[in-house]
Design a protein that fits this description.
alpha/beta; five-stranded parallel beta sheet; 9 helices
């Protein structure tokens, strides 16, 4: 009753077009339908695949070498209008975008095997001081609230500052993050989902998963908002 009254007094507004939102979320039905679905995609790393590929197919990279994570869930592709929401959070600190992205992701992972804990991909402390916000932490915070899965922003840390991934060619991206993460498995966790905003080459996901595995975590899932096509 309180929720309905609040929604009536302060109706949600679509963060994409400004129209009235629906179902308590800051996105209208039209813009929700326009979010670019990541299908078909690799069943292990969520790499977008050609439309001719059958559902459940694996990309060549995962077929050749098994990744350290169980699978990546990335429901959408990094394209309009989803890219606008991610950029609003990441570069302009628009926290309502983080809430919306976390809520939307919570709906998509509802049928997945439930992990014990959610941890966001961290920023190095210097980058965090510079930008004042970790977009992955904001998404994780609202995902935790919507899903009921606990989260911690402190256990997975970035122990080495690295160059910005988006400024590097693919080959350097794959090596840029090597051994840059550490995980404090003080809770003796066995199943964890790592949360990120965008997966591009998968280098960040691999290095984070390796850090968790080194600390004794048996099953690592990667949950992200969007996936970009592999860059060569």
């Amino acid at each position: 009753m309180v929720y309905k009254l609040q929604e009536w007094l302060f109706p949600p507004r679509c963060l994409v077009c400004g129209k009235r939102g629906a179902n308590g979320k800051d996105i209208c039905p039209s813009c929700l339908r326009q979010l670019p679905e990541n299908t078909p995609s690799c069943s292990r790393c969520a790499q977008p695949l050609p439309s001719s590929q059958a559902a459940g197919s694996m990309c060549g990279s995962c077929a050749r070498k098994e990744p350290p994570f169980r699978k990546i869930i990335a429901p959408w592709r990094y394209a309009t209008p989803l890219d606008e929401l991610i950029q609003a959070l990441k570069f302009r600190g628009k926290l309502p975008a983080g809430r919306l992205l976390g809520e939307l992701l919570a709906e998509r992972i509802a049928t997945e095997s439930r992990p014990e804990l959610l941890v966001p991909i961290p920023r190095h402390e210097r980058q965090l001081r510079k930008h004042g916000l970790n977009q992955s932490s904001e998404i994780t915070r609202f995902l935790s609230r919507a899903s009921g899965i606990p989260w911690s922003p402190w256990l997975l840390t970035k122990i080495r500052e690295t160059a910005a991934q988006h400024k590097l060619p693919r080959r350097r991206r794959l090596n840029n993050l090597k051994d840059c993460f550490a995980f404090d498995n003080q809770g003796d966790y066995r199943h964890i989902a790592v949360i990120d905003d965008i997966v591009t080459t998968g280098a960040t996901a691999r290095e984070a998963a390796l850090a968790l595995k080194k600390a004794g975590v048996r099953t690592v899932d990667i949950w992200a908002i969007a996936r970009t096509p592999e860059q060569h």
